[in-house]
Amino acid sequence: IGPYEIIKDFGNGSFRVSLPARLKQRGVHPTFHASLLRIHIPNDDRLFPGRMDTQIVPFDQYENEWAVDSIVGHCGTGLDMLFTVKWKAGDTT
User: Fold this and answer.
1) Which residues touch 32 (CB under 8 Å, ≥6 apart)?
2) What number is the average pLDDT over the span 59-68?
3) Which residues form a coiled coil (predicted)?
4) Which residue, 41, 65, 66, 85, has most beta carbons within 10 Å?
């Protein structure tokens, strides 16, 4: 996703980026370690003709999302992992 402008260098390998409101509303924190950031290289239309950033599915298209308060248990391993979740609404599943 991105590109996003770096608005602050903390001097310890961490950077704050200017995130759009839709990502902030989803709880994405604007501070990242340098190892998670990449320099933006614009699309080379000769190598990838017709590729546009609008082809990426926006985050706000998903519905029926729920806020998790905590994970209270789990069982299984790998792709068969199941979690017991306490939701912000108060119920547990």
Assistant:
1) 14, 15, 16, 17
2) 67
3) none
4) 85
pTM of the model: 0.52
Total of domains in the chain? 2
Both 6 and 30 in one domain: the answer is yes
Instruction: List the domain range (segments joined by +) for residue 76.
Output: 65-93
Per-residue b or e along 47-81, where b marks 16 or more CB atoms closer than 10 Å to that residue's CB: eeeeeeeeeeeeeeeeeeeeeeeeeeeeeeeeeee
Average pLDDT over residues 29-37: 94
Q: Most confidently modeled of 22-26, 30-34, 59-63?
A: 30-34
